Amino acid sequence: MDTAAQAKIAYDRFAAGTVIPAIPLALDEHRHFDERRQRALIRYYLDSGAGGIAAGVHTTQFQIRDPEYNLFEPVLRSISGFIDDHVKKTGKAVMKIGGICGKTDQAVREAKFLSAAGYHAGLVSLAAMKHETIGSMLEHCERIAREIPVIGFYLQPLAGGVVLPYEFWKKFCCIENVIGIKIAPFNRYKTLDVVRAAAESGRQGKIALYTGNDDAIVYDLVSTFRIPVAGVEHVLEIKGGLLGQWSVWTSKAVEIFETIRTIKKNKESIPNWLFQYAQGLTDANSAIFDAAHDFAGCIPGIHEILRRQGLLEGTWCLRKEEILSPGQKENIDRICAAYPELQDNTFIQEHLSSWLA
Question: pTM score, two decimals?
Fold first, then answer.
């Protein structure tokens, strides 16, 4: 299968909805890039059934862009190559998404690099534009969209995001090369702003909505949104998830995602057990993401789960001060004991040696 055909399948899979983990950065004990374990993570996600991978995003550590580390291009080039190796081996197309940050000059450079490195789309963070006008933010996004298909990113303010009104999202949805939005404000009102904006933009059929609300994953996926526009009801759904939470226990994430899709396709009633599952997943995410400390230990928390499963060697982050918060390890102990149904330890142990080979 040639590159263009693979890209077409990847875009179609994204539009239909899939599981997309936001990949962490694998480091060794010296805080150097660990290519072997980065490749193992990719093998894990794709063998789990994920339809895409997002790199260079929050979980990959925004600091990879800092001159002190200068890891953005090496890491994202390696991840793209590792995904391509898997595609050649399996014949299954994978949506490759790269994070885009910074003000316009930096963002455009990153978009050009991602396009050249084989990424299919850029996930645009507006954190660096928080003091700009709505008009400037839209111009920024339009400029990026000339270089690569764009996925919008409504990042929660506690993680550095910007509060973006409905008016922004409606105009953003009208940008021709926008193909999706990751909705991650961790706020129901703001989530509905994005859904309504997509419905009223006239381009809702061309924009795939993805949940990034790690605190409400199942609720987002089971919901059907009915938005009246000029007397006509538009029915929208959140098609998939692009999530840091799905960077752990990924095979179980794929399993529950497919279960939800089947329930909705068959127009079945949502079973009570699924709401219980949803509550457990939110509780688990609270511990892993360190909600008790305003998400300070989010990335080390993800690393801790992957370390326990053998995929990562440690919880090291680029910044030495970025560690598990007080009590976070004990909270992770609690949720690991409480929710075995969320975890895929057996699946990982069956394949770990081949992923690390």
Answer: 0.96
Check if the beta carbon of residue 241 is closer than 8 Å to that of residue 217. Answer: yes
Inter-CA distances, 116 with 5, 77, 120, 140, 296, Å: 17, 10, 10, 20, 34
* ∠ Cα 350 26 69 (to 5°): 170
Can you give the CATH number for the domain in which 81 is found?
A: 3.20.20.70
Strands 232-237 and 224-229: antiparallel
Q: What is the pLDDT of residue 1?
A: 61
Q: Quick count: other Cβ atoms within 10 Å of Cβ 273?
A: 9
- Which residue stretches of the chain have pLDDT < 50? none
> Domain span at residue 249?
3-263
* Dist CA 241 CA 249 (whole Å): 14
> Can you tell me the distance from the alpha carbon of 259 to that of 223, in angstroms, rounded to the nearest whole number?
14
Structure tokens at 147: 């270089």
